[in-house]
C-alpha cells in the first residue's frame, strides 16, 4: 500500500495473549505465597524484632507493585486485542467497499 501502513492483527492478538498469560503464570503462585506469609516479629528473633515492621511493610509493598504490574499488563493486553479487532473490522469494511465499488 503506497504511503500507507499495514497492521498485523494476528501479531497483535498473539502479543495480547502473551501479555495476558505470561506475567500472571510467572508470578501468580509466588505472589500468593508472599501475600499469605505467616511471619511474625518473634520469627525474627529478639535481637532483630525491631526490623520486622519495615521488612513486613516492604514485602507487602512489593506484592502490591506486582499486583499493579499484573493489572497493567492485563489492561494493555485488552487494549491490544481491541486495537486488533478495530483494525480487522476496518480492513474488512475497506475490502467490502472496494469489492462493491469495483463491480
3D structure, described in words:
The protein is mainly α and about 100 residues long. It has one domain. The chain is built from 2 helices and no strands. The chain starts with 8 loop residues before the first helix and ends with a helix. The relative contact order is 0.16. The mean pLDDT is about 85.
Structural domain count: 1
**Gyration radius from CA atoms, angstroms:** 24 Å
Main sheet record: none
The tally of strands reads 0
Instruction: Give the terminus-to-terminus CA distance.
Output: 21 Å
- Whole-number mean pLDDT: 86
**What global shape is seen?**
rod-shaped
Topology as a string of helices (H) and strands (E)? HH
Helix content: over 70%
List keywords for this structure.
103 residues; mainly alpha; Excreted virulence factor EspC (Type VII ESX diderm)
